């Protein structure tokens, strides 16, 4: 059973906040979440002198907290124990990383606007610095999750993501599909037959799947799909498969090869985050990686 002792929800006082809080309620209603922290950091240095003069003696932190309280009361209610944290720190990324360690946050929920509304730079920074798993909720995503896709490359990180996805699917009665995107070095064509190369590559990957299923009996009957990258990136193939399969959640394992706080996202998760997709993206670090 998946238990989340502490969940952090990052709010930015934009239109996506209501959706994010409502999605948080959906998570808490379906999973065992012990406590939720709704967090916002006021960047005072971004406020111009004219605005500072305008607000005068107004307690801005109190006003922001009241605003978040109203949203939480309307969209979240008393679903789970929660706390609202409003800060005024110069560096949001460092603040949030500190909160993760202080409150032993296991999962952070981030909202994501489409690329025509935001560069996503803040989110990318957070993904690289937060020492916990991250669930990204695009503004166009749905709360109704029935099908889960987990791409794997047979690394320990992707196997961990697969195990979490299997537990999640079993707990909530979801459909789970595994996919693997493979490449064939094109520089050897036409020296060797492309057809034979594809056949050989798929035989090798199927062998890896067979070995994986022997080691992890719980995923033995989960359907998997092999996809050749061909002239596209792995992330592009994942996006195309999402559209074809109509999955509602994407789960990716993060390797974390570098020491904290600069965890390594990897090229595929980074590209997936920077792509406009309509499903939540759960990027998972294993406990082993987090404790390094």
Tell me what you see in this structure.
This is Universal stress protein. InterPro entries: UspA (IPR006016). Residues 145-269 form the UspA domain. The chain has helices at residues 16-30, 49-55, 60-75, 92-102, 121-129, 156-172, 194-215, 234-245, 267-273, 287-290, and strands at residues 3-10, 32-41, 82-87, 107-112, 133-138, 147-151, 175-182, 224-228, 249-253, 281-284. It has 292 residues and is of the alpha/beta class. The protein folds into two domains: 1-139, HUPs (Rossmann fold), CATH 3.40.50.620; 144-292, Rossmann fold, CATH 3.40.50. Strands 3-2-1-4-5-10-9-6-7-8 form a ten-stranded mixed β-sheet, with helices on both faces. Strand 9 (249-253), helix 9 (267-273) and strand 10 (281-284) form a beta-alpha-beta unit. Helix 4 (92-102) runs parallel beside helix 5 (121-129) and helix 8 crosses helix 9 (267-273). It is elongated and about 75 Å long. It starts with a strand and ends with a helix.
Summary tags:
292 residues; alpha/beta; Rossmann fold; 2 domains; 10-stranded mixed sheet; 41% helix
* Side-by-side strand order of the widest sheet: 3-2-1-4-5-10-9-6-7-8
Structural class: alpha/beta
Shape by Cα distribution: elongated
Low-confidence stretches: 257-263
Going by CATH, the homologous superfamily of the largest domain would be: HUPs
Number of helix segments? 10
State which percent range the strand residues make up.
15-25%
Number of strands: 10
The CATH class of the largest domain turns out to be Alpha Beta
């Amino acid at each position: 059973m998946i238990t989340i002792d502490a969940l952090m929800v990052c709010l930015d006082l934009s239109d996506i906040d209501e959706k994010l809080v409502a999605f948080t309620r959906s998570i808490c209603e379906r999973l065992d979440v012990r406590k939720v922290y709704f967090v916002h950091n006021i960047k005072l240095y971004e406020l111009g002198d004219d605005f500072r003069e305008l607000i005068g003696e107004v307690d801005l932190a109190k006003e922001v907290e009241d605003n978040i309280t109203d949203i939480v009361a309307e969209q979240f209610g008393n679903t789970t124990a929660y706390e609202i944290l409003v800060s005024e720190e110069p560096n949001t990324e460092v603040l949030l990383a500190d909160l993760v360690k202080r409150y032993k946050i296991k999962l952070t929920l981030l909202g994501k606007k489409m690329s025509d509304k935001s560069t996503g730079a803040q989110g990318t920074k957070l993904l690289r610095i937060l020492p916990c798993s991250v669930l990204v909720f695009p503004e166009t995503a749905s709360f109704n999750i029935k099908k889960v896709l987990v791409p794997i490359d047979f690394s320990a990180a992707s196997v961990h993501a697969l195990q979490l996805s299997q537990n999640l699917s079993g707990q909530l009665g979801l459909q789970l599909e595994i996919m693997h995107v493979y490449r064939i070095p094109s520089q050897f064509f036409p020296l060797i037959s492309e057809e034979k190369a594809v056949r050989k590559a798929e035989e090798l990957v199927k062998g890896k799947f067979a070995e994986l299923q022997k080691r992890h009996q719980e995923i033995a009957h989960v359907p998997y799909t092999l996809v050749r990258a061909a002239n596209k990136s792995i992330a592009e193939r994942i996006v195309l498969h999402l559209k074809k399969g109509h999955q509602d959640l994407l789960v990716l394992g993060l390797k974390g090869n570098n020491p904290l706080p600069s965890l390594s996202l990897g090229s595929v998760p980074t590209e997936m985050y920077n792509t406009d997709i309509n499903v939540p993206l759960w990027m998972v670090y294993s406990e082993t990686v987090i404790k390094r």
